[in-house]
Structures are given as C-alpha cells and as structure tokens.
Amino acid sequence: MIRPTLFARISASAITAALMLAALPAAQAQSLTYQDMCRQAADMPAEFGGESDLKGNAKYPAYCDCFIEKFSARAQKAALYMQANPGKAPPGSPKEVAAQELAMRNSCRTQLGLPAAIDPDKANPAAGPKRK
User: Is residue 65 part of a domain?
Assistant: First the structure.
C-alpha cells in the first residue's frame, strides 16, 4: 500500500490551489497559503511525512519559508506543464514525487542546521504500512 507524504498527497491539490489563488481576490487568496500547509505539517507525525519533529522549533518558520519557495517553484512548473499539455499530468510517479519532496525538505533542513527528515519508506514499521 502506498503511504504518500503529506506534501505528495497535496501536490496535485497544491497545483490546483496555485491556479485558483491566481484567480481569487487578494483577501481570499491570503487564507489559502502554502504557509498554512506548512504549519499544519507540524501536527503530522514525522514518520508519515510530517514535520512534528520540528514543532515548536524557533527555526520552523524559516524552514517553512525555504520549503515553500521550493514547493511553489515546483508547483508553478507543474501548472505550466499542464497548461502546455492539456489533460496530461506532470511527469513523475508518486514515489518520485515523494523522493523529490524529501530532498527539498532535507535541503532546507540542512541549510538551517536542522535534523534530516524521516524517510517514510524507512520509518518504524510500527508506524504503519510501508510503501511498495
């Protein structure tokens, strides 16, 4: 069974949200931000792709800023791909997307001197089923 990371599960939603944000008035768009997604990730267990290990860390807001910059750039690239290729999803399997997101997360964590993110594929078996 595939157990995607938080960000992998919301990647398609994030692309749609990015397109919707562009069409919404500024006041509405402010309530739907990547910053909100990142804040919510602090409540999700790390072994499921969340950021609970950073909850309460003074560097967490800077981490979110770093990750969101990378995540936004990837979402924008995917949106442009979908515009240029109607009806086609951007390339990459769910496993590849999860690996990209883990690399982005760890890049930001390294930059800020934070511990590496837990790879859900290598997480504690007691945490639940692993990806196949």
Answer: yes
Kind and range of the H or E element at 81? helix 60-84
Contact criterion met (CB below 8 Å) for 77 and 14: no
Is residue 132 in a domain? no
Report the 10 Å Cβ neighbour count for 126: 6
Beta-carbon contacts of residue 66 (< 8 Å; ≥ 6 apart): 107, 108, 111, 112
Range of the domain at 33: 6-127
- Dist CA 62 CA 68 (whole Å): 10
Is pLDDT larger for residue 24 or for residue 57?
Answer: 57
Q: pLDDT by residue (tens digit) across 3-55?
A: 444 444 444 444 444 544 454 455 445 445 777 888 888 999 887 878 999 99
